[in-house]
Amino acid sequence: MSITKRLIPGFLRDRAVALIGEECYVSLVENLNIFDTKCLKYAISKGLGVGLVLGGLIMKLPQLIVILRARSARGVSLTAYGFETLSYGIITAYSARQAYPFSTYGENFFLGIQNVVITLLIVYFAPRSTPTQLAGAAVAIAVGAYLLLTIPMSYLAMLQGSTIPLTFLSKVPQIISNHRLQSTGTLSSFAVFAAVAGTFARLFTTATEVKDPLVFWSYVGAAVLNVIIGVQMAMYWRSDERPSIPKYREDQKYPVAHELPQTAPIGTPTSPGKIDPAGSHNGSGRRWTRKLD
After folding, report:
1. Digit-coded pLDDT (tens) for 192-216
2. For the chain: N or C, fewer Cβ within 10 A?
3. Closest of 117, 99, 104, 121 to residue 42, by C-alpha
4. Nearest Cα to Cα of residue 86 among 171, 153, 152, 154
C-alpha cells in the first residue's frame, strides 16, 4: 500500500476521484507516476477548470464596484457588454445541453450573471436614462435567456458558431472607445487582465476535455481581443491623471471659478516692451490689447 493512500483522508480521495477519475487518481496520486502524460494533462485541465469557475464568481465584481463607487459607467461600452453577455449565455446553454463537464464552461454562467447586472447599471447611469429603458433592457435579457433554454439544439449549435463574430462585436466597440478616449475610463484592470489569463487557460481545458471546434475557436477569438484590451490598459494606465477639462455646474453657464486655469496677471508682458498679443480680460470681462509706440 502506498504512503499517499494511507495518508490521504477518504473524503479527499472521493472528491479527487470524482474530479479526475479513478484511473488517473491511482496513477498520479497513489503510484506517483508523474510521467503519465495523459492523466497529468487531464488533472491540470481539471484544476484550471475549477479555478476558472471559482474565479468567474468574482471576476466582474471589481468592475461592479468601480461603477457603483463612481456612479458612472464612463468608458464602459454598452454595446460591448450586450454582445458579451449574449456570448456568455450561448456558450453556457450550448455546453450545458451538450452535457459537457461544468468545469469546462461554468465561469461563463457566473460571468453572464454579473454581466447582466453591469449592463443594467450602464443603462441606469447613462445620461437621460429613463425607467422605461431600464425595464426594456431587463425584459430583453429575460426573453433572451428563455429562448436559449428552449430553442432546438440544431439552432443552438448555429448560435454557438456565431459566438466568434459575437466575441468580435463585443470587444471591438470597447477597443475603439479606449482608443478614441485615449483612456480605459472605469474599466477594471483586474477584470481585464483576469479575462486575458482566463481565456488562455480555457483554451487548454477545451482542447484537453471538450475537443469541440465550435467552442475552441470562440475562445481563440476572445483571447486575441482580450490581449488587445489588456495592451490598451497598460498603454493608458496613467491617462486619467492628465489635467481634466473644467467642470460645469448644472445651474450655471461657465466653469466654476476655482476650477478655472491659472493665468498670468493682467498686463503681464510676454516679452520686453510688449503686452500679450492674445489680449487679457479687464474687470468687465471684455478683451483688450495695447500696442506700444
Report:
1. 898 899 899 989 998 998 888 888 8
2. C
3. 104
4. 171
